[in-house]
Design a protein that fits this description.
This protein is of the alpha+beta class and about 280 residues long. The chain has two domains: about 120 residues, Jelly Rolls; about 90 residues, no CATH class. The protein is built from three helices and 16 strands. The protein is rod-shaped, with a radius of gyration of 58 Å.
Length: about 280
């Protein structure tokens, strides 16, 4: 990296010359003939070179690099562009400071340009930038893949749930439609000492005669198709009371009180059967 004299800090009574006076001179230059005038530069790099003019009017000057001071002479037979100072093998990761001072009053010190070798530093910075960009790209790709996987999983679960929902609803309807389990009541003795059972009658259209009909030995099981069959064809079943006529007072007195008393006595001991 080349630094012209206009990019360097000069302290003292330096004179700025815009036009070059010799071949191979790098544009303008700074010159001083006052003792104690100096030029200072802070930089980062692995090497540094300072170029300037030497000639019959130049004198001694000192260079201090990172606190280490050295002395040089700029006097030559002819005025020419020369290397005033050079240092290699610097630590590129550290910042360095160079101070060049004119030591003799009335003698010239001329500074033209500074060349800093910072390829190592530039390379490391460039590598860091590329790594950062690469990491950003990698993170973006991984995030996109994760987002796609998550979206696919959610879509799969949603479709699977929609497919299962109709089957569950139909099974639930069938289960509710078929879940009619009889309640088995414990055996009881009637007034005559006969054992009798009371089947569960879920159909509200069963006649009173069908509900109370039973033979002398055991209760007849409930037949859901009893309404479609002739009650006279069923063994041990009394003929139902026709719906065309209203029950008589005798029927009500004989059936209703007896049924309520028996059901009230048996209701606390009703135990539902767990479906198979």
């Amino acid at each position: 990296m080349l630094l012209d004299d206009t990019q360097i800090q000069f302290t003292g009574r330096w004179a700025y010359h815009l036009n070059s006076i010799i071949p191979n001179q790098f544009h303008s230059f700074h010159a001083t003939n006052h003792s104690g005038d100096f030029v200072q530069l802070n930089f980062t790099g692995s090497a540094i070179q300072v170029f300037g003019l030497t000639g019959p009017g130049n004198g001694n000057y000192s260079v201090e690099l990172d606190g280490v001071k050295s002395s040089f002479s700029g006097e030559t037979d002819t005025t020419q562009q020369n290397l005033l100072f050079s240092q290699q093998n610097l630590n590129p990761s550290q910042q360095h400071q160079i101070i060049m001072t004119n030591e003799i009053e009335g003698r010239l010190l001329t500074v033209d340009l500074v060349n800093i070798t910072d390829s190592t530093t530039t390379g490391s910075v460039s590598t860091g930038s590329s790594l950062s960009t690469g990491r950003i790209i990698a993170i973006s790709i991984v995030a996109a893949i994760c987002a796609l996987i998550l979206a696919g999983s959610l879509l799969y679960l949603l479709l699977r749930r929609r497919r299962r929902r109709p089957n569950r609803d139909s099974m639930t309807e069938v289960a509710y439609a078929r879940r009619t389990y009889p309640i088995v009541l414990p055996s009881e003795r009637d007034i005559n000492g006969e054992e009798e059972r009371f089947p569960w009658m879920p159909d509200g259209n069963v006649t009173l005669g069908q509900m109370m009909a039973r033979d002398d030995d055991s209760a007849q099981p409930y037949d859901p198709y009893m309404q479609r069959r002739d009650a006279a064809q069923l063994p041990g079943v009394a003929k139902p009371i026709p719906l065309a006529r209203s029950p008589t007072d005798d029927d009500v007195v004989e059936i209703v009180p007896r049924t309520r008393e028996e059901l009230d006595s048996l209701r606390p001991r009703v135990t539902p059967i767990t479906p198979p």
